[in-house]
Amino acid sequence: MSLVSIRSLTRIFDVSKPWLNRLIERKPKALLTAVSDVSFEIEEKTVYALVGESGSGKSTIGKMLVGLLGPSSGAVEIRGVDLARETDAQKVDDVRADIQMIFQDPFASLNPRWRVRDIIAEPVAARGGETGGLAEKLLEQVGLSARDAGKFPHEFSGGQRQRICIARALASEPKLIVCDEPTSALDVSVQAQVLNLMSDLKDEFGLTYLFISHDLTVVQHMADRIGVLYLGRLVEEASPDALFDDPKHPYTQMLLAAAPQLGAFGRDVPPPTGEIPDPINPPPGCAYNPRCPLATDLCRTERPELREVRDARVACHFAE
Amino acid sequence: MVDTPLHDVPVKDPSRLSLALQSDFFYQFKRSPVAVVSFAVTMILVLGAVFAPLIAPYDPFDPASLNLMNGFSAPMTPNAFTGETFWLGTDDQGRDVFSTILYGMRISLFVGAAAVAFAMVLGITLGLLAGYVGGWTETIIMRVADVQLTFPAILVAMLIFGVAKGVTPVEYRDQMAIWVLIIAIGLSDWVQFARVVRGATLVEKNKEYVQAARLIGRTSPAIMLRHILPNVLSPVLVIATISLALAIIAEATLSFLGVGAPPTQPSLGTLIRIGQGFLFSGEWWILLFPAVTLLALALSVNLLGDWLRDALNPRLR
Q1: In sequence order, what DSSP letters do the residues of B72-129 get, joined into one string?
Q2: Could you tell me if A208 lies within 8 Å of chain B, comparing CB atoms?
Q3: What is the C-alpha to C-alpha distance for residues B104 and B270, in angstroms, rounded to an integer?
Q4: Is A168 in contact with B14 (Cβ distance < 8 A)?
Q5: φ/ψ of residue A312, rounded to 5
Q6: Chain A CB within 8 Å of residue B18 CB
Q7: CA B100, CA B293: separation in Å to the nearest integer?
Q8: Selected residues 126-155 of chain A with any CB under 8 Å from a CB in chain B
Q9: Spatial separation of the C-alpha atoms in residues A69 and A66, rounded to whole Å
Q10: Where are the beta strands (DSSP E) in A80-187?
Q11: Cα separation of B284 and B287, whole Å?
């Protein structure tokens, strides 16, 4: 059985103005579908990567997975337990202890008034666990010094702070860590260090990652399975080799063509055309149809379902 | 030699006090003459008030030490009986003005500080709730605050004071007056704390460290108290200092109007009210010295608050 199973997950945000404004302006409620009918599974001890442009719903899926947001419909099951619907508090608590998250902004994810020791030990302390020496041990495991435990977050650089975040995520000995663009706020040289650290820790502790990123090159090296999101929908899912060698969805093809390549410097690439459509009024049919070179009338009326195409799952009427 | 891992060696953290003394904040304090002088003036006045029984040459509440023969002594004139000098003169009852000022400052400072503390606790609690919980809780708290803001604080305080006076039995009125004063000033002052705390809470609650605490399973009260509260306190500190100056003046105003501290426990405002009756008959010292003390106290606390606001504002560095 897979560790995480996400089924038909949908999240709709109400982004309407206050009701008085709506009444005066005679406008209907504005609903933003951030995630629409997304299903995938994450096997234990693998890395599942979600990629997509800004606003494609990557982070929303991550937040629903850790329980910071509830799904509008569909379900997130972790080891067979549905966090949003399970009534047994003990079961929910056990599952929650197995999930941790690493955030995007290392400057906002550490409480500036707390010492690093208390920050790292908090997941354990919150459950009444023994925390003596824990922070010092974890700091050394993530490549910092045990002496840093007594310092405050402002004494560290971005990369060091992200290491502290990783140490905090490891403290409760979780099985699954959701990494929400953990390197996008860091310098390129520091990115590599942090990614290597995460890889090493994954092997050492037998972790499973949900890795959220918009950087294809990062994902190529980390992931065992990649899901491409477009406007809250999963458009393609494949292994890194299959995805990079043989992208099947036109959107994936465009993304790969636009990604910078060191070997092909100065090559002529058609820039990506169009922008992501308004998620409050998504286009009918396939969400990608306004930008797609292959689009036909079928694409403008009928939403393509994910289907198996050789070694991948693709949501396109014409993929084969 | 056996290598002990570093994490087994106990490390002594630098204390928060030593960090504070090395901080920019302390450095800026030393470099600002206004801050140092106003801090010194405040400290002298506060210490004078706290140790009034030790410093004051007379106890103005002890009728045995008073003699009407000493009434209206000008400053620097001797006591008719003991020959000691009345530095700041005496009032109509023969009470030493210097001593009454020291005792009066006690009442003024106590009422001011207690009223600000009360307003702070109330304002921070309601502001945190409004900011963190949101929804109807926020709407109700903040609309009540808005309505209260439309009335001048002194009017609100007088209203509360008047109602409380009507409710308390006559024999307790003098004893209760000080506490009623504290509650009246405190209730008229909580709004600005609530507004500032709510604003800061709205910023903090969306930061990722709060989300990290939530997904660990921390409860909302724990997150509000342990994570958000320490991060919203620096603006509160500034408002508290300026509020202290305003609360002292509010208390003096109420007492001057005769609805504040009773004559048995005269505050600086009560002293000024007594003194103004003698202003035109030539006994200027009975009014002047309490008034100057009140001015010095309010001004130095206010300047300290102003400096604090600038020092804690990263954009003005």
Answers
A1: TPPTTEEPTTT--EETT-B-TT--BHHHHHHHHHHHHHHHHHHHHHHHHHHHHHHHHH
A2: no
A3: 8
A4: no
A5: -140, 170
A6: no
A7: 11
A8: 126-127, 133, 136-137, 139-140, 145-147, 149-150
A9: 8
A10: 81-82, 99-102, 176-180
A11: 6
Sorted by where each begins, the domain ranges of chain A are 42-72+81-98+174-260+269-314
Residue A140 and residue B231: Cβ atoms within 8 Å? no
- pTM, full prediction: 0.82
Chain B residues whose beta carbon lies within 8 Å of the beta carbon of residue A145: 6
Q: Cα–Cα distance between B24 and B26 in angstroms, integer?
A: 6
Mean pLDDT of B40-54: 91
Q: Do A140 and B5 touch (CB under 8 A)?
A: yes
Q: Are A9 and A71 in contact (CB under 8 A)?
A: yes
Question: In chain B, what are the domains?
Answer: 34-66+96-278+286-316 (1.10.3720.10)
Quick check: B163 pLDDT over 50?
Answer: yes
Banded model confidence at residue B11, pLDDT cuts 50, 70, 90 = low
Between positions 95 and 124 of B, the ones with CB within 8 A of A are none
- Tell me if A122 and B213 make a contact (CB, 8 A cut-off): yes
Residue A260 pLDDT greater than 80, yes or no: no
Nearest-neighbour CA in chain A from B217: distance (Å): 7
Beta bridge partners of A11: A35
B12 to chain A: nearest residue by CA? A150
Interface predicted TM-score of the whole assembly (ipTM), two decimals: 0.85
Q: What number does CATH give the domain A42-72+81-98+174-260+269-314?
A: 3.40.50.300
- In whole angstroms, give the CA distance from residue B223 to residue B206: 12
For tokens 């405050």, the residue is A152
- Judge: B7–A103 Cβ closer than 8 Å, yes or no: no
